[in-house]
Design goal:
Elements (H helix, E strand, L loop, with lengths): L7 E7 L4 E5 L3 E6 L13 E7 L2 E6 L1 H4 L12 E6 L9 E6 L4 E5 L4 E5 L9 E7 L5 E3 L1 H14 L1
Parallel strand pairs: 5-7
Antiparallel strand pairs: 1-2, 1-8, 3-6, 4-5, 6-7, 9-10, 10-11
Length: 156
């Protein structure tokens, strides 16, 4: 096996006080922020929907899903469009608010190690926090986030 086969192209997604690390293959696109149309009765972390390529894209605040304050949008705010992998969302995609441009990185077992599996609410969409050289990004549970969105769509 080659060294390239042991590496994974990933994105470091900046949040207000943290970063997420996700495989590049999970991301369809990064788009400019537009204010979502908020759905009445939705949880505060469910920001609403935006028009993306002719379809309604549900957009969430990851910070809000962790029970933290939802950051104010700035000129650097973007929406990272993720592929919905469980089939629970009709749109096939969902967006996560980011506080800057995601950074492309290559990771392998030599630069990535488990740091902790605690430090957020039990129902939070987080698998763990890892140590990556001098960074400590969160690995999101995208399936749990998608399930939260699917439940929100039913309730709203």
């Amino acid at each position: 096996m080659t060294a390239e086969a042991d590496e994974l192209y990933s994105l470091l997604v900046p949040l207000a006080e943290d970063r997420l690390i996700v495989p590049r293959a999970c991301v369809a696109e990064v788009v400019r922020f537009t204010a979502p149309d908020h759905e009445a009765g939705a949880h505060s972390w469910m920001l609403g929907t935006v028009n993306w390529n002719g379809r309604q894209l549900p957009v969430v605040s990851f910070e809000g899903a962790l029970g933290k304050d939802i950051p104010v949008a700035t000129g650097r705010t973007r929406i990272v469009v993720f592929y919905a992998s469980t089939g629970r969302l009709k749109t096939g995609y969902f967006g996560v608010l980011t506080q800057g441009f995601p950074q492309l990185v290559r990771v392998n077992k030599d630069v990535l190690e488990l740091h902790t599996t605690e430090g957020w609410p039990d129902d939070a969409p987080v698998l763990c926090r890892v140590k990556m050289i001098n960074e400590f990004p969160l690995i999101p549970d995208l399936e749990k986030l998608e399930a939260m969105l699917a439940r929100e769509s039913i309730q709203a």
